[in-house]
Structure formats: C-alpha cells, structure tokens
Amino acid sequence: MSSNLNIEALLWDNDGVLVDTEPLYLQANREILGEINVELTENLYKEISLRQGRSVFDLAAERGVDAHQIERLKVARNARYADLIDAGVQVLDGVPEALERFSGRIPMGIVTSSNPEHFERIHQQTGLLPYFDFVLASGDYVRHKPHPEPYLTGAARHGCSPKRCLAIEDTERGLAAAVAADMPCIVIPRPLSQAGNFATALHVLESARELPSRIDSLL
Q1: Gyration radius of the chain over CA positions
Q2: In the chain, what are the domain boundaries?
Q3: How far apart are CA 15 and CA 77, in angstroms?
Q4: Cα three-residue angle 140-141-143, rounded to 5 degrees
Q5: What's the CATH class of domain 2-20+89-216?
Q6: CA distances from 71 to 39, 78, 85 (A)
Q7: Are strands 165-169 and 203-204 parallel, antiparallel or unpaired?
Q8: Pairwise CA distance, residues 198 & 190, whole Å
Q9: C-alpha distances in angstroms, 35 versus 46, 117, 204?
Q10: Whole-number Å distance between alpha carbons of 166 and 43
Q11: Class (C level, CATH) for 22-86
C-alpha cells in the first residue's frame, strides 16, 4: 500500500504531535468547569474533545448554563490555558530530529484547531516554526476536525491532491478528519488519546523517532 502513495507534502497536527500541550488544555478546562460544579473527567474529555471534536462546555450547556455565561467561562479558560503554556511547554520526543530530516526535502505545514494566540505563545518557546511553510489554525477554516475541511484546506495550500499529502496526528478526531479528506495519516497516540480507534491509520507509531524511516519509504 505505502509504495503507491508517492507523498509530496506533510501536514502536522500541533497539540499532542509537535508539543505536549493536551494535558494543559485538559487542566484549564477542568479547573474552570469545576468553578460551576461541572466535573470534567479524563474519560469525558477523551470522548467529547479528542474523539468527537466537540466543546467540553457542552457539559455546562446541558446543565442549563446560558450562552453568555459559557462565553465568560471560555474567556477564563483561555486565560488559564495561556498561563499554563507560559509556565513551559515540552516539544515531544523525536520531533526536532524528524523536522530537520525533512526540512528542504518536502513541503510541510501545520493544521491545528489551536486558538492562534495560544499557538503563538506555544511556539515562542519551541523554535519549530521555521521548518514550516504555513500554519492553519482556528479561524482559517469554518469546520473543525473531525470534518475534513482543515486538511482539504491544507492540501490546497500545498497545491497538491489530498492523496499526495500525509497527515500526522495523535487523536481519533484528527485521523477521522484526514480519512474524510481522502488523505493518508500516521498516528502517534499520546496517553490521553491512546485508547482511540486507529484502524484506518496508515501506521500507528510509538514515537516521532519512528517517523523518518516511515516517511522516507513514502517519498
């Protein structure tokens, strides 16, 4: 299968693929929802956010919290998440080496659901952005993952067919978006996402350190 793909471009997810920020986002959401006595368990977060791609603030809406208060809570969550980011973000193991390996050899972009302000805060610390030709973040498309629009937009920015792009993801939601875009996808699960169904992935890897050999075989 892989020998027929002829990959021409890479599209990387951000949170959980390049940087270990998903636990920070869970923490921020859990703390703010806790202020209105809505418990956000790890399992709920996995199901609502990482599998379905919905807002965890749907839990508040289900309790009768009105839309204006939910917007205020989201503002508080965003501020708390920014504080957690500023306290330090870890680049995931093997990522710098993989990016260095393919820099200049194949076009690369980032396709993320991140808020642009949070994304900028994250990468003020990482030094990774020079490896990429473009970034698509929240606001650069209408429908978020698991809808295919983010990856279709990324393929269009690369100027090639989705079938000739390779998505690199960590969640079931992200994989579903790539598959719906008719784009092959490698998944590197993290602790929060490792229970997902990745049956439609091209490969499921343990670490980004495995990426260079896997991607080399597709070029």
Answers
A1: 17
A2: 2-20+89-216, 22-86
A3: 17
A4: 145
A5: alpha beta
A6: 18, 11, 21
A7: unpaired
A8: 12
A9: 20, 24, 38
A10: 29
A11: mainly alpha
For the chain, strand residue ranges (E) read 9-12, 108-111, 134-136, 165-169, 185-187, 203-204
* SS3 annotation, 38-89: CCCCHHHHHHHHHHCCCCCCHHHHHCCCCHHHHHHHHHHHHHHHHHHHHCCC
- Record the tokens describing residue 20, joined without a space: 């270990």
Partnered with residue 12 across adjacent β-strands are 110, 168
pTM of the model: 0.93
Exposure on the CB side of residue 184, measured as CA atoms within 13 A: 21
* Residue 119 exposed, middle or buried by CB count within 10 Å (0-12, 13-18, 19+): buried
User: pLDDT 10s digit of each residue in the chain, 219 long?
Assistant: 444 689 999 999 999 999 999 999 999 999 999 999 999 999 999 999 988 989 999 999 999 999 999 999 999 999 999 999 999 999 999 999 999 999 999 999 999 999 999 999 999 999 999 999 999 999 999 999 999 999 999 999 999 999 999 999 999 999 999 999 999 999 999 999 999 999 999 999 999 999 999 999 888
